[in-house]
UniProtKB/TrEMBL annotation, chain A:
Pfam families: BPD_transp_1 (PF00528)
Membrane topology, from the record: Multi-pass membrane protein
GO-annotated biological processes: phosphate ion transport
Keywords for the protein's UniProt record, in alphabetical order: Cell membrane, Membrane, Phosphate transport, Transmembrane, Transmembrane helix, Transport
Protein's UniProt name: Phosphate transport system permease protein
Region (Disordered): 1-30
Protein species of origin: Auraticoccus cholistanensis
Biased composition (Polar residues): 1-18
Keyword Cell membrane applies: yes
UniProtKB/TrEMBL annotation, chain B:
Protein name, per record: Phosphate ABC transporter ATP-binding protein
Pfam families: ABC_tran
Keyword terms of this UniProt record: ATP-binding, Nucleotide-binding, Translocase, Transport
Provenance organism: Auraticoccus cholistanensis
GO biological process: phosphate ion transmembrane transport
GO CC terms in record: membrane
Length: 332, 259
């Protein structure tokens, strides 16, 4: 191997057979064995960690599938209900998805708005404390959210539900009657919204703060107002990140157990969001798992597997959305 | 369409730090004025007061008057957003919007301000501006590709096209060629010569050959020491500044005898 080649590709070299270049300072061997050992050690550790993660994931998936199959293939008689497994899990999927979507629909504009306020509008003295308070919301345990939702927030919403069922009950989601405890799917969804709010807010805030000054100033120098500058420079820069933040929030909402289990007084699927009824997969598992045996336990595990698949699909979709904008992301 | 600029006793601050002090200068319409001087003497700072971009930075303030024709842009009640759409700016590093296509970058000034236009008009403005920036032939077949895919010199000319698309009165340029190769630099310099017919141009440059090539008049700024405010030392015809300056420190700087 020639000298120039050796030097040109020194970083990529893994063998230690080549000679040091002639102009190497005396006493400083370019063939740095200890450094190379460090590199190898680190790449070994990373590889091992990667493999462990894959093995654990595969193990979890294998466990879920193995224990879920009996319930999925069982007949209604074996399950001791009048539908197959799919008839059982369908309403739960609907409840989970509806609650999470409402949560995201509420939390996204609020979270993005607060993040923008902190990053681009609020004076520094106000921005920082507000940021801390939002971050603190993330530190509250979900049991506390559940208890608050069931006892305080739900009760506070009852008058609103009463109004909705009185005036808008021609819309199926607001009728025909309303819950008098407020422990409904809509309450659960709103509690979930509060819980995912800090995720969306703090991720978006970090993103917005990282908008290159270069592009903000480009917009301002063209005669943009602050809001126009945000539309031209901040949002396009943060677009992929906002999608990821929303997906993370959606994942959290879909998988949230404790809060929903405490808030919701579960029942069969109904269209109404403000009357008793409906349930979600995590709440169903949390409420039923400790007393479940045999085929019932298998049924709950299968429900968990369905949730796993839903979150996976959501994540893949999010990646596809992000990849579509790659050319225009500013990364090039 | 182009306007004169006049600064009267202009002081520029970053918080309590006086960065530029007591500038008095009158720049005629349809001329090219070069700002030269050592690093840190306040060329960029002063330039950014001319379109009220200075105050975008936290705690940055300006005292004194800056007249665009006869209108003081720092008078109370003047909307900085309106000032900026009349006084365009090209930055040191090319900064096309990375998420926008070449066409949308050119039209950004209209889109930002919510101005709607038909396709024919948009095409006409795009073509006129890109031709004005000597970029049309290079990009006419890929107007829908991202602007960030162009070379540095092309990106800078795209930024110039974006600036002239909205037909400002004045164009400010802060070392527009410092990130460019010599060929692109020549392209931009030629362009400045052409733009002079329609616009008042102020260009900050570190390159004295460039100043003498492109400008009609040259302003020399200097600073007495770190922490001291920058000042306008001499402002005269470029030929005069480079052949027979009337202030000693200008001559020292021009001849490279500067400390
Ligand atoms: N954003 C800023 N905040 C505080 N001081 C600044 C800022 N930008 C520039 N300065 C200071 O203002 C002075 C002039 O800087 P600048 O206008 O960038 O000089 P030039 O463009 O001539 O090199 C320098 O002392 C510099 O440190
Ligand atoms: Mg500068």
């Amino acid at each position: 191997m020639s000298q120039t080649e050796t030097r040109g590709s020194a970083v990529a070299q893994t063998t230690d057979t080549e000679q040091p270049p002639v102009d190497a300072p005396a006493g400083v061997p370019l063939d740095n064995r200890s450094g190379r050992f460090g590199d190898r050690l680190f790449s070994g550790i990373s590889l091992a960690a990667g493999i462990v993660i894959l093995v654990v994931l595969a193990g979890v998936a294998a466990f879920l599938i193995r224990d879920a199959i009996p319930a999925v293939v069982a007949s209604p008689e074996e399950l001791d209900r009048d539908t197959s497994f799919w008839g059982y899990v369908g309403p739960l999927v609907a409840g989970s998805v509806v609650a999470s979507l409402i949560a995201i629909l509420v939390a996204t504009p609020v979270g993005v708005g607060i993040a923008l306020f902190i990053s681009h509008y609020a004076p520094k003295r106000l921005a920082q404390p507000l940021g801390y308070v939002i971050d603190l919301l993330a530190a509250i345990p979900s049991v506390v959210y559940g208890a608050w939702g069931a006892l305080v927030f739900g009760a506070a919403l009852v008058p609103g539900y009463a109004w909705l069922s009185e005036h808008l009950s021609f819309i199926p989601i607001f009728g025909p009657t309303h819950s008098t405890t407020g422990r409904t799917l809509l309450t659960a969804a709103l509690v979930l919204a509060v819980m995912v709010l800090p995720i969306i807010t703090s991720l978006c805030r970090e993103l917005f703060l990282q908008t290159p000054k270069l592009h903000e100033e480009a917009a301002l120098a063209l005669g943009a107002t602050r809001w126009e500058m945000i539309k031209a420079a901040v949002f396009p820069f943060a677009r992929a990140g906002i999608v990821s933040a929303v997906m993370l929030g959606l994942g959290r909402a879909l998988g949230e157990t404790m809060a929903v289990a405490l808030v919701l007084s579960p029942g069969p699927l109904t269209a109404s969001l403000i009357s008793t009824g409906n349930s979600t997969i995590p709440a169903e598992i949390a409420l039923g798992f400790s007393e479940a045996f045999g085929i019932r336990r298998s049924e709950l595990i299968a429900a968990g597997l369905v949730l796993f698949v839903i979150t996976l699909v959501v994540n893949v979709l999010a990646r596809l959305v992000v990849a579509r904008y790659k050319d225009f992301s500013g990364a090039n | 369409m182009s306007k004169s600029i006049e600064a009267i006793d202009l002081d520029v601050y970053y918080g309590s730090f006086l960065a530029v002090e007591g500038v008095n200068i009158r720049i005629e319409p349809r001329t090219v004025t070069a700002f030269i001087g050592p690093s840190g003497c306040g060329k960029t700072t002063f330039l950014r007061t001319m379109n009220r971009m200075h105050e975008v930075l936290p705690n940055a303030t300006v005292k004194g008057q800056l007249l665009l024709d006869a209108e003081d842009i720092y008078a109370s009640g003047v909307d900085p957003v309106r000032v900026r759409s009349k006084v365009g700016m090209v930055f040191q590093r090319p900064n096309p919007f990375p998420t926008m296509s070449i066409r949308d970058n050119v039209l950004a000034g209209f889109r930002l301000n919510g101005i709607r236009m038909g396709k024919a008009q948009a095409d006409e403005i795009t073509e006129r501006s890109l031709k004005g920036a000597n970029l049309w032939n290079e990009v006419k077949d890929r107007l829908d590709k991202p602007g960030s895919g162009l070379s540095g010199g092309q990106q800078q000319r795209l930024c110039i096209a974006r600036t002239i698309a909205v037909q400002p009165e004045v164009i400010l340029m802060d070392e527009p060629c410092s990130a460019l190769d010599p060929i692109s630099t020549l392209a931009v310099e030629d362009l400045i010569g052409e733009l002079k017919e329609h616009y008042t141009i102020v260009i900050v440059t570190h390159n004295m050959q460039q100043a003498s090539r492109v400008s009609d008049k040259t302003a020399f700024f200097n600073i007495a020491g770190t922490g001291k405010p920058g000042k306008l030392i001499e402002f005269d015809y470029t030929d005069k500044i480079f052949s027979n300056p009337s202030v000693q420190s200008t001559e020292d700087y021009i001849t490279g005898r500067f400390g």
